[in-house]
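Task card 7
Instruction: Convert sequence to structure tokens.
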Amino acid sequence: MISQGDIYEGDTHYHAPVINGGRAMLAWNNETVHQSIQTNRTTQEIAPGFEEIARVITEVLRRLPEAEMDETDHEDAREAAQEVLDEVTQEEPDRGRIRRGMTLLRKLLAPMARGVAAGAQKGVQQWALDATEKLGQLTAAVNRVGG
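Output:
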């Protein structure tokens, strides 16, 4: 229980989910969930079973501007992420394209995850480490998703 003394002037307290950003998805008290990605004012359905890949790749795209890598690597990472998102919205996603895109993203994020990128900040390093681990798990599992 929060007492009045625990609340400071100017604090904002939310008693419901708070979503920041324009591409968030939320399912609350649902028995079934249907997710989609909206890009450039169009909505694309995510193929069944590929929702976690879409979520992780969307997060990578959102955090990519924080990544300390040269512009060529940034561009390659953005393109690879977008190709994966494009593929998971196909009726029958090409698992090979998805694996290749996620493998490239892992390769590009690996120097930050290991902390060898020049001036890698601790928060960015931890995000890159988490992202590379999750991408690795999903890459290994991509043949089993989507039925």
